[in-house]
Amino acid sequence: MESGIIEMTDPLAKTSNVAISTRGLTRCYGKRPVVNALDLNVPRGCVYGLLGRNGAGKSTTIKMLTGMIQPDFGTAELLGENIEQMTPATRARIAYVAEGHPMYGGMSIVAIERFQSSFYPNWNGELFGQIVEHFGLSRKQKLRKLSNGQRAQVSLALAIAPDPELLILDDPTLGLDTVVRRDFLESMIQLIQREGRTILFSSHILGDVERVADRIGIMVDGVLRVDCPTDHFKESLRKVVLEFPGTPKVFPLTEGVVSDIAIGTRRELVIANYSDAHREAIGALSPTTIDFVEFNLEDAFIAYTRGDQKPLPIFPQPKQNNLNSTKPETVSSDSK
Amino acid sequence: MYRQLIIKELREIWWMGLVAFAFLMIALWDAIGLNLNFESFTLVWFARDRVPFLDTDFVIQIVALTGYCLAGAIALWQTMGESFRGTWVFLLHRPIPRRDIFLVKIAVGLSVTLVSTLVPILLYLWWAVTPGMHASPFELWMTRESVLVWLGFFPIYFAAFLCGIREARWYVSRFFPIVPVLFLPVILMELVRGTVPALSLIAASIAVLIPPIFDSLARRDYA
User: Fold this and answer.
1) Which residues of A touch B3 (CB under 8 A)?
2) Closest to B96 (Cβ–Cβ): which among A70, A114, A119?
3) From A90, which residue of chain B is nearest by alpha-carbon distance?
4) For chain A, how big is the Rg over CA atoms in Å?
5) What tens-digit pLDDT sequence spans chain A (336 residues)?
6) Residue B57 CB neighbours (<10 A)
7) Is the ipTM of this complex over 0.85?
8) Is B3 on the interface with A (CB under 8 A)?
9) Do A118 and B1 touch (CB under 8 A)?
């Protein structure tokens, strides 16, 4: 439901004190825009989670920002410098952890540290050693013999030791088990955030994003649909389940309606920026019950990005809302 | 930092140079008649009894061909190897100009090929100039044709490097740049007479290949 997808921005994004700024950034594969006219602003000192389903354009965006993919249109600035003319000095202030933590498997941890440190004047060897020690890694280990989680840890140490002002991570916890993932994220936040640095990271793990991100951006089909503080997004989306005596009545409004699904005698609405107009429209339908469901970030993300996709026909029609794991909070429409 | 880049490149390709060098040393021993009496080990596909450097001999048949293969293999390893391992994104985020990263790659790749093949040639030359080693006259000018053919590895290296980094719709079409360069040794041996024309042809081939290499490195995606 295209009309239901609305921009959610707040004034913070418009300030000039931004670490990352893009204007109309576009990249097409063939005729299909993978990233479409992206206007993104990441304030300095912010932990920004970039979310989206597979193919939404997150990785392409990050690769454009780091200069690995050329944009077809638009411009981007990192730390105030255009990415196309980025000087080595500015690049040295930006750490980038690519998806899958690619490194040279033939190198040991000592060798990769020696390699990496030679490029960064601010290299903090002591910090690198502390991180490696914290993760229980032996410096003599070859990178190819490390597990995915250990490689991620080495990547993090390599990214943080140069004391970057901006850290860009492309799905850094992909493929890591829960414990390593949690440890990785907490270490990342402790190490970077204490210095007031900026982090941009993409992730599929919504729980991780909810735990660490100050702001989120959600990309849908290459378009940045949401750019706001994490809590604001969760609070802005509301799921309303209306029960009718017979066939559910049609909800008359389209503005703010992210999804609208009729299941049996029930109509499930996901509404962004729930307003008096929505409340009145719901009241006018005279449903027998109105349930408001509280979202966590994952529920909100799924509801927002899934749109009107109906349950698979192989599953029986659910009696209760099955979109989230939290218990629906039932409140009357009057109390809203 | 450049030292570390050089070490990194050497770390990845030294073994290729060593394998080629070892092969050439064995061939050299065979060429100069020091085959350790292992007759069955003799490399029969080049004539031992020819005039050193003047006839199609050790340098052209063995060293030049090995140099071509080595140059092509190293260039592809340096480029496609990064693609297969997904390490371009790691390497290219180094805070130095991207052009410098590629120049280091090229310099190290050419150096390894050069050293691996030049040392056997110099040893062969030393053997050839030493009186009493072979039953034929020898003067330095006789080395000219062989050396010119051997130098054909330079354009082959650049062509393979271009194949490795350029984007193409199909894998096969990606290798198109190397096809014309493969005729270069034949042209150098059979058609071009004179040092200056031969060197000019080699230089022109390299000059044609370098712009698309740097165009590719600037424009292609490293995803």
Assistant:
1) 118
2) A119
3) B95
4) 22
5) 443 444 454 444 444 588 999 999 999 988 889 999 999 999 888 889 998 888 889 999 999 999 999 999 999 999 989 998 889 999 999 999 998 889 999 899 999 999 999 999 889 999 899 888 888 888 888 999 998 888 888 998 898 898 888 999 998 887 777 887 777 777 777 766 666 689 998 987 787 788 888 888 988 888 988 888 888 887 777 888 999 888 888 888 778 888 888 888 888 888 888 888 888 888 888 889 998 887 777 777 777 776 655 544 444 444 444 333 333 322 223 333
6) 21
7) no
8) yes
9) yes
